[in-house]
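ingest -> validate -> predict -> emit
validate: passed (alphabet ok, no gaps, 217 aa)
predict: started
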Amino acid sequence: MEGRCRKAGAAVLVPLCRVERGKEEGGKEEEEMAEEERGKEKGGREESWNAAVLFTRRSSSLGGRHRGDVCFPGGMAEEFDGDPLRTALRETEEELGVTVREGQVWGALDPITDRTGLMIIPFLANLGPIDVASIKANPREVEEVFAVALSELCAPENRGYTRYGERGRWAYTLPVFSVRGLKIWGVTALILNSTLQLLFPETYIDSICPKTGSETG
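emit:
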């Protein structure tokens, strides 16, 4: 990972966090809460927490083809930001009402250029323990905030790929994640895939299918 790095058209934050098991979307059933309390009495307090990634779902009232999509907090750079990291931190605060300190940011991941030519720089950050239900997201931009355990994102049954064709041949292949009845695809899936490869270099196996002679990256 790099530091503050180069100029970008947009920047996003990849927020790692710890959430109480069962509270990834806020709220718990009574039986789940009772079971957790029984676990605490047996000394299982730490086991009730999951290492997770925090996601947002874009408001369905927004324009564009990506409304309602799962994504990371972030957006377009403004001149007054000064650098991509400040863009990512500003957008996170605007969307989620969460202030992330620079000291919580681990560094920049490799930039990604989308199909329009826009360069996006992702920053990996550790928010620590967080109560998802307490996040007051901006309803004009965010439909939903939720966390997904890293173990769930790494599970092979939740990962796949999509092939995209061009001029009668397979042009490229992208990862896809399916969790909680939602699909994580496109740039967000690419960033997530890179994050998991970085966090678990020995155990995370890329879900993208082997390339054939007709594919070009």
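Helices lie at 30-41, 84-96, 150-154, 186-199.
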